[in-house]
Specification:
alpha+beta, two-stranded antiparallel ribbon, 5-stranded antiparallel sheet
Amino acid sequence: MSDTRDDLPLSALDVSGVTADGADWLASAGTYPRSTLALWEDRPDAPVVLPCGTAFDVVSVPAVFGRRMLDRLWDEGPGSGPVAVFRGRTLLFAAPGTAQRLPSLLRWEEFGRTGRIPSLLCHGTGDAVTVPAPLPTPAAPTPLDSRWLVAPDTRHPWLPGPEIVLWAAVRAARAAVRISISSSPDQDAKVYDVSRRR
């Protein structure tokens, strides 16, 4: 953003956690970064459509599964890059090239075991995604269906590659496999909780 961003109150710059450097990084994905930054100066609560493939790729995941992936990345793995929620989906920002490579890695990993990992939409070169506003103001809060979970805060954020995203998806799928224990018509049947089996 230009110098006018210095006039914004600190609360306007940091409500979502997106820093000025993070906003600059997001805008760098577009053909006209200055126009994107100017839009955010005029309307800091405006989501914007940005192209994928140069600064980042995006892996779009159903929201609940995306949260499980994010938990795996932070609890057991290297962490994540920026992550947003938009219209019921989790957007994992990944290294450029991830969108091209991840689908073949997923097919290889699953080799016939369908249904464990939900549909992951990979957005790379030639695609665009809508990202939440980087600078929501208290007067115009970000809608609940559009917000940052892990906001960009630097001009060069670390972004996971396809192998790390695959690892998180496989771990999240394994953690989600649970056998429901409920009363059934056959009260004498033995029920085993195998949710902890690997």
